């Protein structure tokens, strides 16, 4: 059922189909994310768009020595919570980039760079078309940015003593290519 503010209400006849729809994403239609969430009593159509989305990210040129599930989970977890790792990445079949789905709070700046063992690693977000490379937030572009905040680079020291919760933002580097 089409309801206001570009929301849809969907009912499934099968628990299997429901489980796939809720947990199988992130789903993309025409290069845009389709946010699928279980209905709750607190749901309101007055919210113009969701604050959280599960999005795919890519880490291009990641050193081959880091293509281990635990390392990729730790690197991704230093950005945002990892929902899942792309099968091709997890199986070691994709070497050009590591790909994972992470949970993003769209109200907070996106992490666009990581410092991994002293090497700058760019984080690419798939199909988030309106990312501001000035403040790092989703929803507007640099030319109409309401802030002049400097972006975030996270330092990810990879060692045997994971987790990566010690990653700290560095205001020294601006967002953007």
From TrEMBL:
Q: Note whether Chloroplast occurs among the keywords.
A: no
Lineage top rank: taxon: Eukaryota
Keyword Metal-binding in annotation: yes
Q: Where is this region: Disordered?
A: 155-177
What Pfam family is a match for this entry? DUF4283
Q: Could you tell me which residue ranges the CCHC-type domain spans?
A: 132-146
Keyword annotations for this protein?
Answer: Metal-binding, Zinc, Zinc-finger
Output the PANTHER family linked to this UniProt entry.
DUF4283 DOMAIN-CONTAINING PROTEIN, GLYCINE-RICH CELL WALL STRUCTURAL PROTEIN 1.8-LIKE
Entry protein name: CCHC-type domain-containing protein
Supply the source organism for this entry. Answer: Hibiscus sabdariffa (roselle)
């Amino acid at each position: 059922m089409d309801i206001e503010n570009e929301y849809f209400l969907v009912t499934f006849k099968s628990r299997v189909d429901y489980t796939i729809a809720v947990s199988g994403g992130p789903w993309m239609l025409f290069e845009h994310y389709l946010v699928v969430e279980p209905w709750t009593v607190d749901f309101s159509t007055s919210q113009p768009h969701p604050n959280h989305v599960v999005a795919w990210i890519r880490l291009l040129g990641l050193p081959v020595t880091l293509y281990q599930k635990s390392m990729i989970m730790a690197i991704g977890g230093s950005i945002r919570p990892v929902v899942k790792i792309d099968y091709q990445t997890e199986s070691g079949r994709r070497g050009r980039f590591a790909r994972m789905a992470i949970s993003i709070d769209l109200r907070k700046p996106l992490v666009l760079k990581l410092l991994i063992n002293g090497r700058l690693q760019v984080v690419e977000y798939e199909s988030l078309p309106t990312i501001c490379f000035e403040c790092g937030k989703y929803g507007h572009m640099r030319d109409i940015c309401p802030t002049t905040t400097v972006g975030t680079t996270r330092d990810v020291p990879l060692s045997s003593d994971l987790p990566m919760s010690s990653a700290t933002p560095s205001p020294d580097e601006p967002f953007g290519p």
